[in-house]
Amino acid sequence: MIAKIITHGATRNEAISKMKRALEEIVIEGVDTNIDFLFKIIKNPNFIRGNFDTSFIEKEILIEKE
């Protein structure tokens, strides 16, 4: 792990909005990152609604690759 980004907001949507902005502005050179993967998660409607559990990535994100 190179860094951990944590955002806070008065509401869940505000925190997600801040995270989107942070991911858009971050620049990491020289190594592969998972920024695109993180964008998929925070743009997912079920994640935004708070409708997720420990199988979220398997059900919502990995299925998109098939």
Please give a structural write-up:
The chain has 66 residues and is mainly α. The protein has one domain (12-65). It is 52% helix and 0% strand. Helix 1 runs antiparallel to helix 2. The protein is globular.
Brief digest:
With 66 residues, this protein is mostly helical. The protein has one domain (12-65). Helices cover 52% and strands 0% of the residues.
How are the secondary structure elements laid out?
Blueprint: H1 12-25, H2 35-43, H3 45-49, H4 56-61
Helix pairs in contact: 1-2
Number of strands: 0
The shape, in one word, is: globular
Biggest sheet overview? none
Task: Tell me the span between the first and last alpha carbons.
Answer: 27 Å
Structural class: mainly alpha
Number of alpha- plus pi-helical segments: 4
Strand content: under 5%
* Uncertain residue ranges: none
Mean pLDDT: 91
Note the run of SSEs as H and E: HHHH
Rg on CA atoms, Å: 13 Å
How many individual domains? 1
Helix content: 40-55%
Keywords summarizing the entry:
66 residues; 52% helix; 0% strand; globular
